[in-house]
Design a protein that fits this description.
about 40% strand; alpha+beta; disordered C terminus; about 30% helix; six-stranded mixed beta sheet; globular; homodimer; about 140 residues; Nuclear Transport Factor 2, Chain: A
Chain lengths: ~140, ~140
């Protein structure tokens, strides 16, 4: 029920981020968009793609990602973060695979920004870009398992 | 004189960003690193490269960018931003060229994050990734001229 989902209150940036990646793995557009702030200043950059801004355009782009029915399997690891009372910046490594082909996995680096508003924490920036293939073996051996 | 540069106080995120891109175009490592926060939680991602964190590692990577003597010509356009009293997030389009070959220009999307501390505003995140070749013609005709 989208109306309910849009009123989800995330009490922390971590809650918002967990909901974002869960929705991504489920291919659940409504749950994913419930994490985003409804703001024209929001920015989403898919790996290798251009900059998309504004809630409606970002929703359209995610709808397209999910439209082929392909399910994504996303493992994410928070590498570092900066939090202040109103804004949180997370640096995340993602490992993206397809549910039907576990051998194909691509490393992605993401910068996620969340802001605190009347409805809790919401995402305003998701900047994802392809990482070199050796990212998991060299950059973060201690956190991926 | 690096000591002086390190004490540069940027009164706004805009001032820090202007100094960052000026230093980048001049190939001036000291001025560039004066913009960065001296913090282990800083993150720098060069287009197509892995995630680098911490002041020392970020400095080493920029030193390598500048080491071949190749000068970069960088035009940047702020597309959108989110500011709160302690943190500023800028979404920037960069157009990067080589001084000795103006015909080669590559579009890059950057997310820059600045935080306010005792010494004014400093950069804590620079996430840059290659943008599609048609970025300037389709995404932002109104701001690039």
């Amino acid at each position: 029920m989208p109306t309910t989902l849009k009123k989800t209150i995330f009490a922390s940036p971590q809650d918002a981020e967990a909901a974002f990646y869960e929705a991504l793995s489920r291919g659940d557009l409504e749950a994913l968009m419930a994490v985003w702030a409804e703001d024209e200043e929001t920015v989403c950059i898919h790996p290798g793609s251009g900059r998309i801004s504004g809630y409606a355009a970002i929703r359209d782009a995610w709808a397209q990602v999910f439209s082929n029915g392909q399910r994504l399997n996303v493992r994410h690891t928070l590498q570092s973060h900066h939090h202040d009372p109103l804004t949180a910046v997370h640096s995340v490594l993602e490992e993206i695979g397809l549910h039907n082909d576990p051998s194909q996995r691509a490393p992605v680096i993401a910068t996620n920004v969340y802001v605190r508003g009347a409805l809790g924490w919401r995402m305003i920036v998701h900047h994802a870009s392809p990482a070199p293939p050796d990212t998991f073996s060299t950059d973060a051996p201690q956190v991926l398992h």
